[in-house]
Specification:
The chain folds into three domains: 191 residues, Histidine kinase-like ATPase, C-terminal domain (Heat Shock Protein 90); 144 residues, Ribosomal Protein S5, domain 2 (2-Layer Sandwich); 200 residues, formyl-coa transferase, domain 3 (2-Layer Sandwich). 37% of the residues lie in helices and 24% in strands. It has 18 helices and 23 strands. Strands 5-4-3-6-2-1-7-8 form an eight-stranded mixed β-sheet. The chain starts with 8 loop residues before the first helix and ends in a 6-residue tail after the last helix.
């Protein structure tokens, strides 16, 4: 018997479908992109069981004729590519024929569509690879795709799906990006009997940002509008405002949401030296390069792109944002062109002095210290460097301690003790702190409200997207409490249950620790060094960052050519 066989079509098609359709989010993404490419001005998404039992996407875009509706379930059918050259300049997100064969292979699908010609629309019902019905139906111009019982014929794949709420969270996160990219389109999302959001069409990105994130976020953003090689448009943090993470650094290339390290690096470089340490810019940036300059087929889900000239893209984003930052701060500068920037960099590198430094070790555990150090020979404080690092020494060598990370570790272990005893002291706000939450943040709050309350954060709904922070830990003032609350929501959004408490305590420690750039007295420095070496792990902060580096005595003596006596 042959060991290698050809799989039957019904099996190979399910495998191929599984590569495209991984979970409910994948279905929603494909169908919504189809609706937008069809010119829809309204897109309705209805879900059941986080999308596992029901996904229905209805649009008012260009519908299909009976012939097109039947063909769109055939593999490799499409309406946007007719030649190999078309692959080099894809202008659409997707179209009916590309997703429906994969979706229908692993679910029960009902398609209703009407293209505007004739008196009747078309309904097609399918179960897996089988067509159950093709007939006339009364339907307005547009398309409805109903997907039931995802992976009903692949039970092994069903086992890998997350909870209803987790699957819903992924869909909400994706739709929030699409809603930003297409402000002129009405979007609504219903889960079960609950309307998660309903955003009417608006004329500008600014209005859409207000709809999703509210006034408080919008007030901390500046407009970016810069043209050189291509058009860069959007909003980014108005210094000194920033966030404790990069999760709200969103990029769109020709209105397609993408993840790209080059874009993120350019953004963060533009804000270097403008925001305080451990803060990152918030950004909603849209790039419009020529379609032929971008390859969108480098990722199966088209979540990543490749630029033909990534360095030019990097430089334009850097200059565009730096220009806006300069104008915000009242700095009038002439920003150099790409050629001038390259020449300036070359000259700087040619003139840069070369330094040879002693080898530095990153402390990864207590093995770097001899037993005697743990007993009595803790490093002795010498001075503060750059208002950020504490210099200390002992017989083993010189220690450079990050004051923020050290204090974070100390506070984290103190907060662990308080949390274990369930004795969080809270402060009742005389004037409730008001704020708006996005749909994704509302889901996170709903899932974690009890845990947040245990840590001292009591939040009440005030109607619409508005909420009030009624109580919070007394280690904060009201503004610090609000900022920390938002950070906590971001930290635990995608975390497993067993990790959430750790994340929350680590975030509280980070928010209340001494910051970089803060001048410290000798007493404070001595306190930090002494308390640090009493902790269970004086090598790493709760977020896993090194607390100190050590330049060993041997390295110092070797570098200075002074042999040890």
């Amino acid at each position: 018997m042959n060991k290698i066989i050809l799989l039957p079509p019904e099996i190979s098609q399910k495998i191929a479908a599984g590569e495209v359709i991984e979970r409910p989010f994948s279905v929603v993404k494909e169908l919504v992109e189809n609706s937008l490419d069809a010119g829809a001005r309204e897109v309705k998404v209805e879900l059941g069981g986080g999308g596992k039992s029901l996904i229905r996407v209805v649009d008012d875009g260009q519908g299909m004729s009976r012939e097109d509706a039947v063909v769109c379930f055939e593999r490799h059918s499409t309406s946007k590519i007719s030649s190999e050259e078309d692959l080099a300049q894809i202008m659409t997100l997707g179209f009916r024929g590309e997703a429906l064969p994969s979706i229908s292979a692993v679910s029960r699908v009902t398609l209703k569509t009407y293209g505007g010609k004739g008196n009747r629309g078309t309904i097609i019902e399918r179960e897996g690879e089988k067509t159950l019905q093709v007939s006339d139906t009364a339907f307005p111009e547009g398309t409805s795709v109903e997907v039931k019982d995802l992976f009903f014929n692949l039970p092994a794949r069903q086992k890998f799906l997350h909870s209803d709420r987790a699957e819903l969270g992924m869909i909400v996160k994706y739709l929030s990006l699409v809603v930003l990219a297409f402000p002129e389109v009405r979007f609504s999302l219903i889960h079960g009997k609950r309307a998660t959001f309903n955003y009417p069409p608006v004329k500008t990105l600014r209005e859409r940002l207000f709809q999703i994130y509210g006034k408080s976020v919008l007030e901390q953003l500046m407009e970016v509008d810069y043209r050189e090689i291509f058009h860069l448009y959007g909003y980014a943090s108005r210094p000194p405002h920033g966030r404790s993470d990069r999760r709200r650094q969103l990029f769109f290339v020709n209105r397609r949401p993408v993840r790209d390290k080059i874009l993120q690096a350019a953004l963060n470089q533009a804000y270097r030296g403008v925001l305080e340490k451990d803060l990152f810019a918030e950004a909603f940036l849209f790039l419009y390069p020529p379609y032929s300059e971008v390859d969108v087929n480098v990722h199966p889900a088209k979540a990543e792109v490749r630029f033909k000239n990534s360095q030019l893209v990097y430089q334009q984003i850097l200059r565009g944002i730096q220009k806006e930052i300069g104008e915000e701060r009242g700095i009038k500068e002439v920003y150099p062109s790409s050629e001038q920037m390259n020449e300036r960099t070359r000259l700087q590198e040619s003139r840069a002095p070369v330094f040879k430094t002693p080898k530095e070790e990153s402390l990864t555990g207590e093995e770097l210290f001899k037993p005697s150090l743990k007993d009595e020979a803790h490093p002795r404080t010498l001075a503060q460097y750059l208002y950020t690092y504490i210099l200390a020494s002992n017989e083993e060598g010189l220690f450079i301690i990050d004051q923020h990370n050290a204090h974070e570790r100390i506070l984290y272990e103190q907060y662990q003790e308080i949390d274990a005893q369930k004795k969080w002291p809270v402060k009742i706000s005389l004037l409730p702190v008001l704020f708006d939450l996005s749909p994704s943040q509302e889901l996170t709050l709903e899932s974690n409200q009890a845990l947040l309350k245990e840590l001292g954060f009591r939040v009440e709904a005030m109607g619409g997207k508005s909420y009030a922070l009624k109580e919070f830990p007394d280690i904060f003032d009201s503004e610090e409490a609000k900022d920390s609350f938002f950070s906590l929501l971001d930290e635990i959004k995608d975390e497993k249950i067993e990790n959430k408490r750790i994340k929350l305590l680590a975030t509280l420690a980070c928010k209340t620790a001494i910051k970089a750039g803060e001048a410290l007295s000798s007493e404070k420095m001595n306190y930090l060094v002494e308390e640090l070496f009493k902790t269970s792990n004086f090598s790493l902060c709760p977020h896993g960052r090194p607390i100190m580096i050590k330049v060993g005595r041997k390295e110092i003596e070797k570098g200075l050519k002074r042999p040890r006596n």
